[in-house]
Amino acid sequence: MYSVLIGGSLMLTLSMGMRQSFGLFVLPITRDTGMSMADFTLALALQNIVWGLVQPLTGAIADKYGVRSITLAGTVLFAAGLVLTMMASGPLLLHLGMGVCIGIAMACVSLSLALSASARVVAPAKRSMTLGAVSAAGSIGSFLAAPLAQGLLVNYGWHVAMTGFIVLCVVMLPGAWYVGAADAGGARPVGDREAGLSLKAVLREATEHTGYITMAIAFFVCGLQLVFITTHLPVYLQLCGQSPGLSATALATIGGFNAIGCYVLGWMGGRWPKQQLLGLVYILRSLIIVAYFSFDPTPTTTLIFAAAMGMLWLGVAPLVSGLIAHIFGLRYMATLSGIAFFSHQVGSFLGAWGGGLLFDKLGNYDLAWKIGVAIGLGAGIAQVFMQTRPTPRMAMAV
Asked: Contact, 7 vs 176, CB < 8 A?
């Protein structure tokens, strides 16, 4: 059990930490190569939409054959994407490396598979807190990756910073290996109620469950808001006259407080309705964004904003995973998480690229953050009233 939890945490720490630090590279790469901000943000948008498209496939493969081969391949592909990015002098290689390769890699090494594997090796009574703890450990990565990237960017340039990330991929390999220890039980049905259950049958259950559909659609706002911040906050701060170091400090602060928030929300999810906690997260995020972007940023307000957003960052993951396990069981948890995650990544695509397009057109981020707030409030309210009843198959087993 512990090898799975530790391996998943290490894999998440490094993959999510690097991915959330890519916004630091926007200005250095565009200035050095002559590419536009829209070119770079399109690469990040492609990364997120490819991640979302591939996640259900990797989830289905993991549910049937196990996760180890997928996580190892994803780690290698992540490094390959970084190499292609270093070679880029124009949009094509940037979109292939930063966009397509790293997008596929994230579908192999990120939250969906790590949490699915972790859920299989713990008792149901401890599941919510355990998923929160794994998410918390996995969130510390930006606390490491962002300062590392910023230090290398300032002192040696973006090529050396990318090389530093390749080294982190090597460190990630043992985690990708050990999370596969869950494979001993991962390919078998979990309990009599899931024996003989086909993927087609569980997909039919999902399409007929209004609560699952509501949660998947609301998950869209999570991706939009978070990727908008990680991609565009560094640019916004420099445009407002703040030092480049503040961006790295803000991203690291998000990572540090995210670790606390994931654990707290995982603990709360074992005691209070998960759908109401999810809705509250979306609403609170939106209100915090309003409070921050309504005034000119300062170092103090930026770090307060980063801490508040960090508390609400990846804590949604254990809540979503816990709801899926409660409604449908564990047999196809990775698949159903991947399908819901596609909605999240459509939001991420729009948060990254749409924010860049609006900035190029208007010269500011005012309309972008207002759209994010409006969508967030609507999704939060809908999420609070989500239907959470288990499927008839699961209800009969209780």
From this structure: yes
Q: What are phi and psi of 104, to 5 degrees?
A: -65, -40
For the chain, the domain total comes to 1
Q: Is 73 inside any structural domain?
A: yes
pLDDT in tens, 164-210: 999 999 999 999 999 888 776 544 444 545 556 788 899 999 999 99
Examine residue 191 and state whether it is found in any structural domain, yes or no.
no
Higher pLDDT, 29 or 248: 29
Task: Please say whether the beta carbons of 66 and 180 come within 8 A.
Answer: yes
Q: Is residue 374, in this structure, part of any structural domain at all? A: yes
CA atoms within 13 A on the CB side of 154: 11
Q: How far is CA 151 from the centre of its chain?
A: 24
Alpha-carbon distance 276 to 165, whole Å? 37
Range of the domain at 158: 2-182+196-393
Average pLDDT of the residues of the chain: 89
The H or E element containing residue 107 is helix 102-109
pTM of the model: 0.79
What is the spatial distance between Cα 67 and Cα 182, in angstroms, rounded to a whole number? 8
Distances (CA, A) of 35 to 42, 191, 260, 273: 11, 54, 38, 47
**What are the backbone dihedrals phi and psi of residue 332, each rounded to the nearest 5 degrees, phi first?**
-120, 35
**Residue 189 falls inside a structural domain:** no
Interatomic CA distance for residues 218 and 376, integer angstroms: 8
Helix (H/G/I), strand (E/B), else coil: 201: helix
The pLDDT > 70 percentage for the chain reads 96
Instruction: Quickly list DSSP for 20-64.
Output: TTGGGGHHHHHHHH---HHHHHHHHHHHHHHHHHHHHHHHHHHHH
**pLDDT value, residue 117:** 82
Judged against a pLDDT cut of 90, whether residue 331 lies above it is answered with no
Q: What is the CATH number of the domain that holds 160?
A: 1.20.1250.20
At 275-327, the pLDDT tens digits run 999 999 999 999 999 999 999 999 999 999 999 999 998 889 889 988 998 99
